[in-house]
Structure formats: C-alpha cells, structure tokens
Design a protein that fits this description.
The chain has helices spanning about 5-15, 20-30, 45-50, 60-75, 85-95, 130-145, 160-170, and strands at about 30-35, 40, 55, 80, 100, 105-110, 120-125, 150. The protein has about 180 residues and is of the alpha/beta class. It has two domains: about 1-115, no CATH class; about 115-175, no CATH class. It has a four-stranded mixed sheet, sandwiched between helices.
C-alpha cells in the first residue's frame, strides 16, 4: 500500500464503487498481514516511501513465495534479496513477472512507476571483481528506492593509479 493506492481506494469508496465493509476489510489488513511464520509489512511504502524488503537467506522458496504473493496483492514493488539460484528458479516459475538479477542475487517485481526521490547521485564503488555481487545488489536496491546510481567496479585497491582513474566519475556533478 502506498499513498496513491490509498487515495484510489478512498476515491472508489467515495464514488460508491467500493462498499463500506470492503473498505474496512482492506484497511483492516494494514499495516501487516500475518502468515503464521511471517508478518508481512504491506504498509511500509506508505510510511517510509520504500517497499518491504524480503531477505531470502534462511527462508524456503515456499515461504518467500507466500510473502511475495501478499506483497504483490498489496500492489507495491517487491524486492527479495540474497536468493540462491534454486530459490530464484522456483520463484520465477511461480511468479513470471519477477525479474531475476543473478549477479546481485535479487528478485524484483516493479508494480509502480519508478519515481526518482534522491537529490544527487550515489556512486557504488567496488575494489575488485569479487566485490561485484554485493556492489550490484547495493546499486539495484538504491535504484529501486528512487536514486540515480553510478557504478564503478574493479576500481582496485592494490594500485592507487586504478582508484585515482575512477575519481573524476565520482566527483562529476550530475542532475
């Protein structure tokens, strides 16, 4: 649930397209839905402007699927982090609209238009190629949350000349 969806819900009620009991039932599910082993925060985007983030580590694909189904039904974006290839394969089979970003170990379902909220540019800089999965995870999450991102991967720490070569990209002003 985000502000636009809440406004649309209230407008539907005002126009008589939604019964009072339906409105109350929808609002009663806020701010979370209890699944037994998980409390899914369907109200986070309304409170903070960013969607609930689901950590895949330690969860079964079935647990993640139940959480994704609730978040998808709530109408917000869905972000699942730290998924294994096996989890991703099973979840994408059940939810074909999920985007799998294998290198970042992320699953993303965008249901709302991306709105740029950040005021500047976030530079995600990694030292070596081994750092790229974590750097790409950070970059994609920052983008999903409405930020502009500049990726500078394999900037290097063993040779200062490699890091200095990336500095102009970090210091360059952006709009």
């Amino acid at each position: 649930m985000d502000r636009d969806r809440l406004h649309a819900l209230l407008e539907s009620f005002a126009r008589g397209e939604l019964l009072r009991d339906e409105l109350i039932e929808t609002l009663a599910r806020l701010p979370f839905e209890l699944l037994g082993d998980a409390r899914v925060d369907t109200h986070r985007a309304l409170r903070s402007g960013v969607p609930e983030v689901v950590l895949g580590t330690g969860k079964t694909a079935e647990q993640i699927a139940r959480i994704v189904a609730v978040l998808r039904a709530a109408g917000g974006d869905v972000l699942v982090t730290r998924v294994t290839p096996e989890q991703a394969s099973e979840l994408c089979a059940g939810f074909p609209e999920l985007e799998h970003h294998a290198s970042a170990r992320l699953l993303v379902l965008r249901q709302a238009p991306l709105v740029v909220r950040g005021r500047g540019l976030i530079a995600v800089v990694s030292a070596g190629t081994a750092d790229v999965p974590v750097a790409e995870e950070a970059a994609l999450v920052a983008e999903l949350f409405g930020n502009k991102v500049e990726r500078i991967y394999d900037a290097g720490v063993a040779g200062l000349h490699r890091l200095l070569a990336a500095l102009p990209r970090c210091a360059r002003p952006r709009s």
